[in-house]
């Protein structure tokens, strides 16, 4: 059942975070649904602009509709990841999406606010929720001074102003993580202090953590042992998700880890069975392995086992 992102957030807030998983194809969708059903977790499917272009947005949407029928037990929201204005408006008009992310974080504060307000007006008219972003995502580099590091992180006071004036429903905050497989050099530091300050200023307001793949060391080793070249890849410590959830993070974005599972499965498969050319063989392994990954990740996020409680809460929440 496709549901409102806001309702999922209302249930999760302060207790656990929802996994927001990027998808691009049918195998990812099957693994994603199986993993979430097996772990009894509500979840968010997110689709980037690149994913909508890869095959065709209508194909992805139709596959999600089909998955809803194949897995009637599932409770999930459908979200646009890192949308520009045009993509968000197109998604809002389609009536298919629970929420959109308008990413104008590369603009200055005033322009980010103006763009976000326009999307909020269009989205709320259609009961679609809006995630905005303030601050710039970036890994923590050893050579960067504390002042330089702080400069691109989300400023809690600005976040409070942005939230109250823009009318957005959730905010992606820059707290030291970055996209991709190379997040941290040197010691890891998620800036929990920023989350804490924001939570004090806007208690109950849902926050979003981007760049949350954990880039498992074992996965990277296996990829490299099968011919890959991912040197020094490093991600977020997954034992920190629950702390983040207690501080108001309700959505944790994960894409890279899924790509790593795909890469490991396919590299190992073709290394070990060079005579095979049936695409369904590695595809089957991938779906199982991705489902296992999702199952594990939902335990770390605390969303595992929440499905029935969410179902109950949906009956009472407007
Ligand atoms: O944050 C970006 C996501 O990982 C989506 O990546 O734009 O390559 O689909 P993509
Ligand atoms: P990762 O690259 O860490 O998976 O982050 C994905 C993301 O933030 C999508 O919006
Ligand atoms: Zn992101």
Automatic annotation (TrEMBL):
Keyword check for Metal-binding: yes
GO terms, molecular function: aldehyde-lyase activity; zinc ion binding
Needed co-factor(s): Zn(2+)
InterPro entries linked: Aldolase_TIM (IPR013785), Class_II_FBP_aldolase (IPR050246), FBA_II (IPR000771)
Domain of life (superkingdom): Bacteria
Residues binding Zn(2+) 2, per UniProt: 103, 133
Sites where the protein binds dihydroxyacetone phosphate: 180, 211-213, 253-256
Any one GO BP annotation for this protein: carbohydrate metabolic process
Entry-linked Pfam families: F_bP_aldolase
Annotated catalytic residues: 81
Keywords, in A-Z order: Metal-binding, Zinc
Binding site for Zn(2+) 1: 82, 179, 210
Keyword Zinc: yes
UniProt xrefs under CDD domains: TBP_aldolase_IIB
Annotated cofactor note: Binds 2 Zn(2+) ions per subunit. One is catalytic and the other provides a structural contribution.
UniProt-recorded name of the protein: Fructose-bisphosphate aldolase
């Amino acid at each position: 059942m496709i549901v409102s992102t806001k309702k999922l957030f209302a249930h999760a807030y302060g207790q656990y975070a929802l996994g927001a998983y990027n998808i691009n194809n049918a195998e990812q969708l099957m693994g994603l649904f199986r993993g979430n059903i097996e772990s009894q977790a509500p979840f968010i499917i997110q689709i980037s602009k690149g994913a909508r272009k890869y095959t065709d947005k209508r194909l992805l949407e139709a596959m999600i509709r089909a998955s809803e029928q194949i897995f009637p037990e599932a409770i999930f929201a459908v979200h646009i990841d890192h949308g520009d204005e045009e993509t968000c408006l197109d998604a809002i008009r389609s009536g298919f999406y629970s929420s959109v992310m308008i990413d104008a974080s590369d603009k200055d504060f005033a322009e980010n606010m103006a763009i976000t307000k326009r999307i909020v007006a269009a989205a709320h008219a259609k009961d679609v929720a809006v995630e905005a972003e303030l601050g710039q995502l970036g890994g923590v580099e050893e050579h960067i001074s504390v002042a330089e590091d702080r400069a691109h992180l989300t400023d809690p006071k600005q976040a409070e102003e942005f939230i109250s004036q823009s009318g957005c429903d959730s905010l992606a905050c820059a707290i030291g993580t970055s996209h991709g497989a190379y997040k941290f050099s040197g010691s890891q530091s998620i800036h929990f202090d920023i989350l804490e300050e924001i939570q004090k200023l806007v208690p109950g307001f849902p926050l979003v953590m981007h760049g949350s793949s954990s880039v498992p060391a074992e996965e990277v080793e296996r990829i490299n042992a099968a011919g890959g070249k991912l040197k020094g890849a490093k991600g977020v410590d997954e034992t920190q998700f629950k702390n983040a959830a207690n501080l108001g993070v309700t959505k944790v974005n994960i894409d890279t880890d899924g790509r790593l599972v795909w890469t490991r499965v396919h590299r190992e498969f073709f290394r070990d069975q060079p005579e095979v050319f049936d695409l369904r063989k590695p595809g089957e392994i991938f779906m199982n392995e991705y489902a296992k990954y999702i199952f594990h990740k939902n335990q770390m996020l605390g969303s595992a086992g929440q499905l029935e409680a969410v179902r109950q809460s949906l009956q009472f929440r407007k």
